[in-house]
Amino acid sequence: MNGHVHAAVDLACAQAKLGHDVCVASGGGDFDQLLHRHGVATVVVDHQRKPVSLLKSSYALRRHVRARRAEIVHAHMMTSAVLAWPICKVAGIPLVTTVHNEFEKSAILMGLGTRVIAVSEAVGASMLKRGIPASKLRVVLNGTIGSARIENRSPLPVVLGSPSILFVGGLHPRKGLPDLFEAFRLAHEKHPTVRLYIVGEGPFHAEYQETVAKMDCAAAVTFLGAKEDPFPWMAGADIFVLPSHADPAPLVLSEAREARCAVIGTKVDGIPQLLEYGAAGILVPPHDPPALAAALCSLLEDPSRIDEWQDKSQTRIERMTIDRVARETMDVYAGALEPGSKAAQAAA
């Protein structure tokens, strides 16, 4: 259920599909079998942030890098970057890092990379302000369409009450759910047949349920819990809403667009870029339930408007593929490698 892990797994499988030798070093998990089916090797490297564990992990990673004769090490997490940096320095190979959550103070550690990938233009601008040299930074916009994770996806949409509004994400303040609840309350007063569905889990699940229970429209809100693949619910929804207060480049938006939802998102971080700056989805200010309610009502009062924005969700949808992400990432690798080397030529 972790977007960073999804991005790393998607990329590894897409790189293997391009013919590269890819190995994922992690603490292990539910995706190991999927990686193996797609030709990606896995090795165990503990990422617990404890001195003894980190020392053992550093030794293990060094051994794996040598044994596999790695030409690039790509770190998606801060712990990974810190573990890999001295190993790459000694081995004389590039370290590429990807910044997923630039709002975390520790994200500055990703600047250890020979190249630093930002998952949206907004993340790139933020990292520049934090002192990462422009010569290191490259932007590779997140995308997930065509992911290996969806190979067994059900094509059948879940039947939802219509008109339906859907949220998919973690249940914590950064995602702005209280704003959506208030906006829904305002919209429901004018359109009492509308329904809201919440897919996801998180530390504020119980608190959010209590908040909704106090609303007059509580019966119109359904908490569905976490779903291994939320796509069937997206395919069954009329409107998808992401009311985030901070969101560098959420993968869920490319999935909602692939499902042909009419999409509403906030004007924060990478969300505008993922919605083609308003061409593929409606943008509203964050922390502004009345503005979100107005956007919802503009769709609910005229079903043809929902159809219109569902069609608009397909604007430049081809940019949201994992194949594009993999090709652009390989270009970053080629730039990090010594010009003329066999590895650089293969990456290119």
Unreliable stretches covering 5 or more consecutive residues: none
- The termini sit apart by 32 Å
Radius of gyration: 21 Å
| Helix percent band | 40-55%
| Average pLDDT for all residues | 94
Strand arrangement within the widest β-sheet reads 9-8-7-10-11-12
The total of beta strands comes to: 12
- Beta-sheet strand percentage? 5-15%
What's the helix-strand series? HEHEHEHEEHEEHEHEHEHEHEHHHH
Tally of helical segments: 14
Overall geometry comes to elongated
- How would you characterize the largest beta sheet? 6 strands, parallel
The helix-and-strand class reads alpha/beta
Structure in words:
- This protein is an alpha/beta fold and 348 residues long.
- The protein has helices at 3-17, 32-37, 51-68, 78-91, 121-129, 177-190, 205-213, 231-236, 251-258, 271-274, 289-300, 303-312, 322-336, 342-347; strands at residues 23-26, 41-44, 73-75, 95-99, 115-118, 137-139, 164-168, 195-199, 221-225, 239-242, 262-266, 282-284.
- The protein contains 14 helices and twelve strands.
- The strands form three sheets. The chain has a six-stranded parallel beta sheet with strand order 9-8-7-10-11-12, with helices on both faces. The protein has a four-stranded parallel beta sheet with strand order 3-4-5-6, sandwiched between helices. A two-stranded parallel sheet has the order 1-2.
